[in-house]
Amino acid sequence: MKPNLGTLDKAVRVVLALVFFSLYFFAPGNLKWFALIGLIPLATAFASWCPLYWMLGISTCGMGAGKHAG
To answer: So where does this one cross the membrane (predicted)?
Structure first.
């Protein structure tokens, strides 16, 4: 698997995962289970690979320096 997530994208996913994990403490009753959704952005951030980005041909990895040299 070739990485397709850049540094900023990974940071946003980690923050999003923490937001979902916080649902465990603030959501009432069975809604606490939605906190597990945070595992998805956390796993993709640590793997540096997103299957949805892969299917759509998107890559935020390495945007910038030398990427568009012509």
So the answer is: 12-27, 33-54
